[in-house]
Design goal:
The chain has 163 residues and is mainly β. It has one domain (21-157). It is built from one helix and nine strands; from the N terminus they run H-E-E-E-E-E-E-E-E-E. The protein has a five-stranded antiparallel sheet, with no helix packed on it. The protein has a four-stranded antiparallel sheet with strand order 1-2-3-4, with no helix packed on it. Strand 3 and strand 4 (82-84) form a beta hairpin.
């Protein structure tokens, strides 16, 4: 009976680890996982509530009227077993992340993200695309999905400099 109880405890802990909501902190884990060209791609975004009164909540992407309620505290990406370098500026201003997924591209992959997609969230639906090449995010493009005729709202290129 002890072995079964221990196994059940391990399964319960794993289930909490991938749960979308933690009852104590309201932290959510949003996961993207796929295989592209024989290589496994995995991303985890830790999404947390923004404390009331933080002024930068009103400045996040796609926010209109009411400040964002959640922010991406951390974003980890792996290609196979290799971690991908992700600049903080690649995700730190993305409020109310709703979902993310991978798509292939010629030299690597893209991680696509959407925010303000749930009914309870205020603001414009936004999309972001992180381009991954050689185990590093090399570009970020964001746009307001509701206004595609305006094109990209912002494009940021990242360059890894070796000293």
């Amino acid at each position: 009976m002890r072995r079964v109880t221990g196994l059940l405890l391990v399964c319960a802990v794993l289930a909490v680890g991938v749960s979308s909501t933690s009852p104590t902190s309201r932290t959510r884990l949003i996961v993207a996982d796929t295989v592209i060209a024989g290589k496994r791609l995995h991303a985890e975004a830790v999404v947390e509530p923004i404390p009331v009164g933080f002024p930068w909540a009103a400045e996040m992407l796609g926010v209109t009227g009411e400040p964002a309620k959640h922010y991406v505290r951390a974003l980890k990406i792996k290609m196979g077993s290799t971690p991908v370098g992700v600049p903080l500026s690649g995700y730190s201003d993305l409020g109310n992340l709703s979902r993310m997924w991978f798509e292939p591209q010629e030299k690597g992959a893209r991680l696509l993200m959407e925010g303000n997609a749930n009914r309870y969230e205020e603001g414009n639906l936004w999309s972001a695309e992180l381009t991954i090449e050689d185990n590093f995010v090399v570009q970020r493009q964001v746009w307001l999905t509701e206004f595609p005729e305006y094109g990209a709202y912002e494009t940021t290129k990242y360059v890894l400099i070796d000293d």
